[in-house]
Automatic annotation (TrEMBL):
Ranges annotated as spanning the membrane: none
Name under which the protein is recorded: M23 family metallopeptidase
Entry-linked Pfam families: Peptidase_M23
Chain ranges of the M23ase beta-sheet core domain: 54-147, 206-300
Cited InterPro entries: Cell_wall_metabolism_enzyme (IPR050570), Dup_hybrid_motif (IPR011055), M23ase_b-sheet_dom (IPR016047)
This protein's UniProt keywords: Signal
Span of the signal peptide: 1-21
CDD domains (alphabetical): M23_peptidase
Record GO terms (molecular function): metalloendopeptidase activity
């Protein structure tokens, strides 16, 4: 075999990992948020549509306690806890960067320069448990993009173990989504959307929503503006409120202690529709939050 032939697949792999969006101007490049330069343990995976599964950022390998730095000049837009995860978000003008899980040393409104310290990496709430890693996100308005495209060109060459990327943990979100969606309750995610063994029946089935571990009696807000189309009791879901938002999107709030709105009520984002309970087929106080797009269950966290 010719000595150069065996290297062709490797060359093709390296070329394939480079950004296809063309050269990035120097003034739009990002600095690495960790030092030394980390390995990318899970790449950006663009979802096929705004509500579908995907990986809206990159996961960077680093030990818990590592110093996390801002990638570019900007203003801290948010620093705090969402669904039990510590998050920092920085506005750079036309683009926003997000960092999680990070114990912030900054507050909203702080002006930062590229390389300034934002905080320290936490283990809890990370995407790579039992290891720590930093989830770095990039958003242009409502669109998510690959952070690697703005990082040093060398970032596009990464090594992947033969075992593949680590499994994805429960997703975390910002408090308000690009289309005005909000978290119904500010509580940790106790069980994410997806296949699981049902804790009561023992069957493998789709967990058709996201469980938020809030205390009984906690007010539950509508995730977005809409109209209440059902207030009912379903044996599996207990007391339930269903809100229609238009465009084929419906959300429901399940296992409620009680509903606080009637059918036909018009609600806004954050309007209280009931209180957390443990009615129906439930193992304890929590909110089972569901979303359906044209009748098909989707991960409600992807709306935020």
């Amino acid at each position: 075999m010719h000595p150069h032939v065996s290297s062709l697949p490797l060359v093709a792999l390296l070329i394939a990992t480079l950004s296809l969006s063309g050269p990035v101007p120097d003034d739009q490049r990002w600095w690495w948020p960790l030092d030394p330069r980390p390995a990318v343990v899970r790449p950006f995976e663009a979802p096929p549509n705004p509500y579908a599964a995907g990986h809206r950022g990159i996961d960077l390998d680093a030990p818990a306690g590592a110093v996390v730095r801002v990638v570019d000049d900007g203003v801290v837009a948010f620093a705090g806890r969402v669904a039990g995860v510590e998050i920092v978000s920085v506005d750079h003008g036309s683009v926003r960067s997000t960092y999680q899980p990070v114990a912030a040393d900054v507050v909203a409104g702080t002006r930062v320069a590229a390389g300034d310290v934002l905080g320290r990496l936490l283990l809890a709430g990370g995407h790579c448990l039992p290891r720590a890693c930093l989830h770095l996100g990039r958003r242009h308005g409502t669109a998510y993009a690959d952070p690697v495209e703005l990082l040093d060109r060398a970032a596009a060459v990464r090594l992947v173990t033969p075992y593949g990327p680590p499994p994805a943990p429960p997703q975390t979100i910002e408090p308000v989504g690009p289309d005005g969606f909000v978290v119904p309750v500010d509580a940790p995610i106790s069980s994410p959307f997806g296949m699981r063994i049902h804790p009561i029946t023992g069957e493998l089935r789709l967990h058709d929503g996201t469980d938020l571990a809030a205390a009984c009696g906690t007010p539950v807000g509508s995730a977005a503006a809409g109209r209440v189309v059902a207030v009912t009791y379903v044996p599996a879901y207990g007391n339930r409120v269903v809100v229609e938002h238009g465009g084929g999107l419906v959300t429901s709030y399940n296992h409620l202690a009680a509903a606080s709105v009637p059918t036909g009520a018009v609600v806004g984002a954050g309007s209280v529709v009931g209180t957390v309970g443990s009615t129906g087929l439930s193992t304890g106080c929590h909110l089972h939050w569901m979303a359906l797009e044209h009748g098909r269950p989707i991960d409600p966290m992807l709306m935020l």
